[in-house]
Write a structure and sequence with these properties.
It contains 16 helices and 12 strands. The protein is an alpha/beta fold. A 7-stranded mixed beta sheet has the order 1-7-6-5-4-2-3, sandwiched between helices. A 5-stranded mixed beta sheet has the order 8-9-12-11-10. Helix 1 runs antiparallel to helix 3, helix 3 packs parallel to helix 11 and helix 14 packs across helix 16. 50% of the residues are buried. The structure holds pyridoxal-5'-phosphate. Pyridoxal-5'-phosphate (PLP) binds next to helix 4 and helix 5.
Length: 430
């Protein structure tokens, strides 16, 4: 039997799989197949009618993905998960599953630049309005809500500001108004379970900490199963009225016997079916390998990050260090309330010498990699103003907290002395 443990250390190794039923293989096999033989025409009919859940075609489901999905659902405290080809696909699906042309959603200004582009520009072309609000005051979400608002969206630990999102506060407003909260939890796996704090959906770019080895692009959505879609039927016609794309299925009713999985099943059998952003079985296998050491890695990431901030705050060339553990007041309260066991491994700092010093520092690094990524086992650095955030206008950049002098570090799991030694020699040249 697979585990029923609630402990993340055990979940990442045992949830959703004991051994392969035909070969008894202990490692999860890579089911590299496009399709699955039906037992009979009745069996095939039941699968398509969702009377029975089972494998039909790998664009929509796959046994290797299924183990990964079960582990992610257990880790995040949800009722079901959907693996996708990228974090971007997960952000898109998370919103598009319940937000159609003419609708709007309210989104934190503190989000990943790629999500910003998707929401502000691509969604606009689809007739979906993204209303950006500052999460400093959770009431901003209430103010921006109207009868066409379908969800709220935030990031647990958004860089560059590294100001932890007020998850329970915004979720509570949403519950009063009948609006579910979607959280991008990419930067804080294990440290935070947004669903426990009232969010309805938690998503990850699994490209980052979940994979950990920097080998694969992927994403996942986890459904908390904790939102009453029927109670708010007027706001969610897409889950409460017949879906013409699935022979008139009403999602809150069609899958009721299987549990509160209307949101995640709809995302799988309509959006994934139509858009096709599936995670390959091989990548699902690699994410399963990553998950196995996730809890251990997060401990080392977080411990190293604290030691690095202690070094950086004392450095004479650095004017400011941005890190949740160094914040005070309400920001610190949120960091302590929503991050358990560490403040994450992202650090920002600003150099006295501004843009030129930032670039000189990056060019002088020998061990840290200069890449547009976070969450790798290796330590990484980047200058956001000229890279990840360069497609934003100057006003948008400053809204997201990027200055010309800002350098972002994603601290890895190497020996911390080696990380600090590399920072030290590069800062000497900055
Ligand atoms: N969300 C966050 C917080 C990210 O940092 C990223 C990528 O950097 C994404 C989503 C998008 O993920 P992916 O690159 O896997 O599409």
């Amino acid at each position: 039997m697979a585990t029923t443990s609630k402990n993340p250390e055990t979940i990442v190794l045992h949830a959703g799989y004991r051994s392969d039923p035909t070969t008894t293989a202990v490692a999860v096999p890579i089911y590299q197949t496009t399709s699955y033989q039906f037992h009979s025409t009745e069996h095939a009919g039941n699968l398509f009618a969702l009377k029975e859940l089972g494998n039909i075609y790998t664009r929509i489901m796959n046994p290797t993905q299924a183990v990964f999905e079960e582990r992610m659902a257990a880790l995040e405290g949800g009722v079901g998960a959907l693996a996708l080809a990228s974090g971007q696909a997960a952000s898109l699906f998370a919103v598009q599953n319940i937000c159609h042309a003419g609708d709007n959603f309210v989104c934190s200004t503190d989000i990943y630049g790629g999500s910003w582009n998707l929401f502000a520009n691509t969604f606009k072309t689809m007739g979906i309005e993204c209303r950006f609000v500052d999460p400093v005051d959770p009431a901003n979400f209430r103010r921006a809500t109207d009868e066409r608002t379908r969800c709220y969206y935030g990031e647990t630990l958004p860089n560059p500001k590294l100001a932890v999102f007020p998850i329970a506060e915004v979720a509570k407003i949403g519950r009063e108004l009948g609006v579910p909260l979607i959280m991008d939890n990419t930067a804080a796996p294990v440290l935070c379970q947004p669903i426990k704090h009232g969010a309805t959906v938690s998503m990850h770019s699994t490209t980052k900490y979940i994979g950990g080895h920097g080998t694969s692009i992927g994403g996942v959505l986890v459904d908390g199963g904790n939102f009453d879609w029927e109670k708010h039927a007027k706001r969610f016609p897409m889950l409460n009225t017949p879906d013409p794309s699935y022979h008139g299925a009403v999602w809150t009713q069609a899958v009721k016997p299987l549990g509160p999985i209307a949101y995640i099943i709809k995302a799988r059998v309509t959006l994934l079916r139509d858009i096709g952003a599936a995670m390959s079985p091989f990548n699902a296998f690699l994410f399963i390998q990553g998950l196995e050491t996730l809890v251990l890695r997060m401990r080392q990431h977080c411990g190293n990050a604290i030691a690095v901030t202690e070094y950086l705050v004392k450095h004479p060339k650095i004017t400011r260090v941005i890190f949740p553990g160094l914040q005070s007041g309400e920001l610190r309260r949120r960091a302590d309330a929503y991050l358990a066991g560490g403040y994450g491994a992202l650090i920002g700092f600003e150099l006295k010498g501004g843009r030129d010093a930032g670039r000189a520092f990056i060019d002088a690094l020998k061990m840290l990699y200069h890449v547009a990524n976070i969450g790798d086992a290796r330590s990484l650095a980047i200058h956001p103003a000229t890279t990840t955030h360069s497609q934003l206008s100057p006003e948008e950049q400053s809204q997201t907290g990027v200055s010309d002098a800002y350098v972002r570090l994603s601290i890895g799991i190497e020996h911390v002395d080696d990380i600090i030694a590399d920072l030290d020699q590069a800062l000497a040249k900055a």
